[in-house]
Amino acid sequence: MRNRSFMTEHARSFDRAAAVYAATRPSYPSAAVDWLVPESAARVLDLAAGTGKLTRLLVDRGGLQVVAVDPSPNMLGELHAHVPVVPTFVGTAERIPLPDHAVDAVTVAQAWHWVDPATAVPEIARVLRPGGTLGLVWNTRDESVAWVAEFGDILTRLHDRDEQELAPVVGAPFGPVESIRIPWQQTLTGDGLLDLVRSRSYFITASPEQQADVLGAVGDLLAGHAELAGRDHIELPYLADCFRTRLPD
Fold this sequence. Notes:
Elements: H1 4-12, H2 18-24, H3 30-36, E1 43-47, H4 53-61, E2 65-70, H5 73-82, E3 88-90, E4 103-109, H6 117-127, E5 128-141, H7 146-155, E6 178-188, H8 190-198, H9 201-204, H10 208-224, E7 234-246
Parallel strand pairs: 1-2, 1-4, 2-3, 4-5
Antiparallel strand pairs: 5-7, 6-7
Helix pairs in contact: 2-8, 7-10, 8-10
């Protein structure tokens, strides 16, 4: 497990790349929203909302009052530009700026690994109404596809492969964790794939030499791989891992 100072440094790095994050990071399949958020929910908190990738889908579903919380003002600025109807607040999973029993559901997309569960779990339970749902989702690249595996190998020059493949530990007062995996694809240009690399925390915090090395290698992959060379658009396959758990009524 990485230490908390390392995690904090990388989490804060997103403030320096909010615009490229908003432009290139993948969204989520709409089926994930339908599975994570109960039909009975009226008010939802998108926690660690970032630039609002999941927030937009929550709004698009209709019938939900959505509020967003994130520690980065720049990320929330990008969110507000895309979904200005959503109230935004600076805060963290460990200190949520909402009153007790304020929402029916809390979602956390691509951010549970930044959270300290010992503090965040009781805080999330505090803002949920009895019977409320916590829904977690993250995308993992589908490296069963050959070029995606090669892309992942390049990125390991800057970091270990993602550690988000295991079911999250939530614990009391929440009940059992259910899960589902949803395959889907993100459509990108070659330049978009390079910008996707630039949006990663481990790239933002790397040295200029390391950054140049990785971007050069991804450029070579784009130019030389039979599935990518000469194509205007690329389909990057993902697996959306979804988890949900409820408070007692």
